[in-house]
Amino acid sequence: MKTNMLIASLSLILMISLYKNMLNHTNFVSHNNEPKVGDKVKNNNPSCKHFKSVGEVTKIISLKGEAGKTITYKVENDGSTYCKGQLLNKTMDQLTFF
Prior knowledge:
By secondary structure, this protein is α+β, with helices and mostly antiparallel strands. The protein has a single domain, classed as SH3 type barrels. Helices cover about 25% and strands about 30% of the residues. The chain has one helix and five strands, in the order H-E-E-E-E-E. It has one helix spanning about 1-25, and strands spanning about 40-45, 55-60, 70-75, 85-90, 95. Strand 2 and strand 3 form a beta hairpin. It is extended. The N and C termini lie far apart (about 45 Å).
């Protein structure tokens, strides 16, 4: 009984945290307020191993068939799965302005 309540409580806390993250950040969508080379971006995808990485956009690539764009950025902070100077490539829906 206590274990079930604990799991339910943790699930609720996670859902609230994800909801707050969605309210505080607007992800990029192709053709809508896109970043440019030199802009600062932050990974705001909590499911990504590079979540919370921040960096400067170095390249933007259009995908075939109007499937969207990817952004390459040079990381400016350290985390457990990324480090300063590393180049990361993400789809625009995983990033927001920093």
